[in-house]
Amino acid sequence: MKTNIIPRDGELVGPWQKDLFTAVQTGRVGNEVFDCLIVGGGITGLTAALLLQQSGKKTLLAEAHTIGFGTTGGTSAHINTFADTTYNETESAFGTEGAKLFADAIREGFDLIKSNIENYKIDCDYELKTGYLYAENEDEVKLLAEIFEGALKVGVPVKYVTEVPTPVPYEKALAWAGQAQFQPLKYLQGLQKAYLAAGGTLEEHTLITGVILKNGVLTAENAVQSIKAKAVIYATHMPPNINLFNFECAPYRSYVLAVQLKSGQYPDALIYDSQEPYHYVRSHVIDGQELLLVGGLDHKTGHDDPENAFAELEKYTRTYYNVSSVKYRWSSQYYVPVDGLPYIGKMPLAPKGIYCATGYNGNGMMLGSIAGRLLSDLVRKRPNKYAGLFDPCRVKLIDSFSELVKENSDVAYHFVADRFGFHETDSLIRLEPGQGKLVEVDGRKVAAYRDEDGTIHALNPTCTHAACIVNWNGAEKSWDCPCHGARYDIEGRVLTGPATRDLGRYGDEK
Ligand SMILES: Cc1cc2nc3c(=O)[nH]c(=O)nc-3n(C[C@H](O)[C@H](O)[C@H](O)COP(=O)(O)OP(=O)(O)OC[C@H]3O[C@@H](n4cnc5c(N)ncnc54)[C@H](O)[C@@H]3O)c2cc1C
């Protein structure tokens, strides 16, 4: 089987990955016991690894593919002082003190990125911008008022404004001064350089399939070697294999276009609407050419048609902007936590010394950074004021109960429907080149993809994580699981966890 050389977890090429650094592999690890193994080379893993290594801990960072392969390579990279879970929502679930702490964490994550850029002189297109959120109807105006009150209550500066640099007609708008944007992979590259300079060990193309406690030492298993460590951090966005977070976080896909405008006039701001699902725009100079980034239209992974989402996003963009060409389009995945706040800390139901971070919603730049700091403090046995708020073992069912039921009933539906309700009768013959489909062959379900040469790639569609049936994602040419968001390429290789085993090939199991 050929090795995976795509630089991110999908077929589409995003603007950040073009100048990707070459893979680093320092060789086999041997029998050494590391102070900490960090699994996953996105913003969370690299932030944690750098902090730990610099504090004198001996660390190893293991990445299944290459640095930035996951969502950090597909992010739209806004750095904000507000979050998808609003401060008033946080207050109703976690009290005023909880909401204040959450605001502090978001701010501290923001500041950590800024200080890393300064300290390590990372050239990553970091720019300060004003952020605008506008309302187009009465309900959204009410929502804006709540967001305004909630932000002021926790001390986050925000004000009403009458001028927003958007062609979309709106009724009211809020503005946050001093927001920021950057190029996420240039930032990761800077962190990686600092990490290696501090003596850190990096192993790319190293998928960790599980961690067990063996003779008092945590032992991480990989296809070619075992890695021993006193502590392990799952910075994998979603911890691998079956775990509690499969029921506490819902995977969502989100879409981005980068377009060139005929006018050459680009907004010098971060602009968001209040629709559900929402849209946002910002600009970024890529290869000397300013482009408008338009994103949003999020939906649960494996549930809606990604190509339709791209078509809708492009239609929306062309309605309001005079587009001369679409330069990039890509999508990526994030996780919505059931009670609104991320889970960062000790991994529930796992041996002592295993930590994790997940459920950042669309705010992983700040929350991934703060997770890196919080997890490095936990490994170093130092106090951290966010440890209680983000504790993954918390039980929080109050306001989020209905949401929990909604997410879980949906997962439960797929557990049942995928096993017993499959009535697909389509045949392989009608499969077009470049198309993937669930078909039935000899009474058995097959995930079939026909490549441009006409060859059929036939897989067992049963997700290796929890046995749901995967769906075709025509935009990223991947098989996406509607239950917990595991994703596979056309050969069945894992692109996104929590699965750690590839899909079986059709016929192998006979
Ligand atoms: C389209 C989109 C736009 C977004 N925009 C913003 C934004 O503007 N601002 C913001 O703050 N947030 C945004 N987010 C969210 C943010 O991008 C993510 O929360 C963040 O990048 C997650 O970082 P991470 O390091 O935790 O995970 P990832 O970047 O996904 O990194 C995890 C890494 O772990 C590796 N891995 C997984 N399993 C294993 C294993 N078993 N063994 C070894 N390695 C493994 C993966 O290959 C991957 O590279 C956006 C998300 C999306 C989808």
TrEMBL record:
It comes from the Bacteria. One of its GO terms (cellular component) is membrane. Residues 423-510 form the Rieske domain. Keywords: 2Fe-2S, Disulfide bond, Iron, Iron-sulfur, Metal-binding. PANTHER family: RIESKE 2FE-2S IRON-SULFUR PROTEIN YHFW-RELATED, SARCOSINE DEHYDROGENASE-RELATED. InterPro entries: FAD-dep_OxRdtase, FAD/NAD-bd_sf, Rieske_2Fe-2S, Rieske_2Fe-2S_sf, Rieske_Fe-S_prot_C, YhfW_C. GO terms for molecular function: 2 iron, 2 sulfur cluster binding; metal ion binding. Gene3D superfamilies: D-Amino Acid Oxidase, subunit A, domain 2, FAD/NAD(P)-binding domain, Rieske [2Fe-2S] iron-sulphur domain. This is FAD-dependent oxidoreductase.
